[in-house]
Amino acid sequence: MTALEKTGKYILIFLKYFSLVFFSFVALLPVVSCVITAFKTDAEYQNTNVMTLPESWFNFGNFVDAFNKAGMGRAFLNSTIILVCVLLFSTIIGTQLAYVLDRFKFFGNTLIRNLFLFASMLPGVAMQISVYEIMYKLHFINSLPGYIVMMCGTDVIAIYIYIQFFENIDISLDESAIVDGASYFTIFYKILFPLLKPAIVTACILKGVGTYNEYYCANLYLQDKTRLATVATSLYTFVGPLGSKYNLICAGVIISLLPALIVFITCQKQIYSGLTAGAVKG
Amino acid sequence: MGAQLKNTRRRKKRTFSEWIKSRDGQKVLVMVAFMIVPLVLLAVFTYIPFGEMVNFSFYNMKYIGARKFVGLKNYAKVFSRDDCFGALKLSLYYMGGSVVQLSLALYLATLLSFKVKGGNLFKGFMFFPFLINGIAIGFIFKFFYTRGFVFDTVLQWCGFQLDNLPYWLKDRSINNISLVGTSVWRYFGQNMVLFIGAIMSVDSELYEAAMLDGANKFQQFKYIILPSIKTIFVLNVILSISGSLSAFEPPYVITDGANGTGTYFVVMHEIAHTQQKVGLASAMAVVLLGIIFIVTIFQKLFFKYVFKDSTQ
Distance (Å, rounded) from C-alpha B84 to C-alpha A70? Predict the structure, then answer.
């Protein structure tokens, strides 16, 4: 290798790491600046530049304050209830639907798949104009169960993940169970459902993050913000008179994204593979 | 023969309870039991509202109270009011943003698909913004762009004078670009992960064979990576154009549509839920869905045609 080629190679390596470091910096800067500010006392916040590091990294006063002011205890409780119910119901109906769509050939199979696919392409914000009226008629406004039922609805990505998984489970497994006299319910719940575990974990993580972060419908349908706030909508407390106390706001923001961060750190692989699986098929 | 006849007659006269116990009956039963809930949900929360929306668009109405049939007047308003159809011009900013976003994602995905020290860490850093909830993003960027705060400070480190910097969210010549920036920030990592997934699905022997044949990195990119991500790339282009037309979150959570940042959907949301002009908002939604539908079909045909040519 000549000297020139060598320098060229080093320049390329430098460029590669420079790009990665630079864009990681860009991705982290807005969040990191929030973390810095969240640890500052009021006096510090007013007198120092936003990017100056806080005097103490143990000043959790803002976090406690934000947690109480925004009623985040209640919000975490509500979000947990919503999360558990939505994941439970959507897993049951999603896997059952995928089972029928993959294992049974019947008139309308493709039509049903397409109906779900088309539904996923309709922008949610536009749909809520008329969904609002339906929610009103069903007395689902300001009702946690109502919101949960709505959130359990169509989730094409999960259905695709399940269908893909069923395709890879050998159908002879079903057939031998049928010969043994097992009913379809038994086949599904005793044999196939346990095998689906990896797919269920992946789909639940994706759906879970989505549900936890959902704020538009939560804001629209759970209007009673003291009783029915979710973690995301509890942040609305900071709109208005508290709107310039950014040390408090940043603390609230950081609290709200901690669960997502923890899930991300522990389940990176599933999140990546889930996204990829859902996207390639969709 | 008599027994056979008797047998067929009995099959015809099989009672319902017998039928439900047979394999066929079981099959139908399990299909109905497993599909009824998702299909009802699909109908109640997607297709019935969809029909209602089309219906609403012909009325002058609020959610509660009397409705008046007005024919196509709402549609006429969508095209004549400048805050409605004119707002679609802002989509151009978001389309520009998605070009930046997709190229950046492709570039970084290519870098990360080769051996990189700490690759997973970089990937994680860049992906994480995708997992932050919308309202938090709103606050983070209100803070980020505030005069003299994060962004201005970093620019001052780079030698800019504060006096020469614009107000990122107020200045009408730049605020839409600031908002598009937040959207690129949020999604480039997610796009990157999708591209990496597609690149990784290529058989690694292909790269080894290419290396043996003396192909350089650029040739590997052109002949192996690019074809492997074709599908997902096309899908993302299609999604990003319909996404740009229906851009909503950045202005909704950061500026509330003030100072000329109100995209079509932000205006529509305001008309529907604040002013309660449900008919007009429905007409806006129907018009945009129509546009998205047409654009998507054109794109699909376009890509089909273009890629057919390039592979031959």
Answer: 35
pTM: predicted TM-score of the whole model, two decimal places: 0.89
Rounded to the nearest angstrom, the minimum Cα separation between A153 and chain B is 5
In order of A26, A50, B151, B174, the CA distances from B161 in angstroms are 21, 17, 12, 17
Residue B69 β-bridge partners: B59
Residue B60: helix, strand or coil by DSSP?
Answer: strand
Q: Please give the class, per CATH, of domain B80-311.
A: mainly alpha
Residue with token string 């950014």: A246
Q: Find residues 126-145 of chain B whose CB sits inside 8 Å of chain A.
A: 126-129, 131-136, 139-141, 143-144
Same domain, A7 and A35: yes
3-state helix, strand, coil in chain A (%, to 5): 75, 0, 25
Q: Is A66 inside a domain boundary?
A: no
CA distances B302 to A88, A183, B289, Å, are 42, 48, 20
The amino acid present at B35, given as its one-letter code, is: M
Domain positions in chain B: 18-73, 80-311
The tens digit of pLDDT for each residue in B125-150 reads: 999 999 999 999 999 999 999 999 99
Q: Which two tokens stand for residue A173?
A: 């497994």
Residue range(s) defining the domain that contains residue A138: 72-242+254-281
Cβ neighbours of B16 (radius 10 Å): 8
Residues of B in contact with A23 (CB under 8 A): 104, 108, 126, 188
Put simply, the chain A residues between 53 and 92 with a CB less than 8 A from any chain B CB are: none
Tokens coding A274 = 């889930």
Most A CBs within 10 A among B131, B162, B201, hence the mutation to make, goes to B131
Same domain membership, residue A132 and residue A83: yes
ipTM over 0.95: no
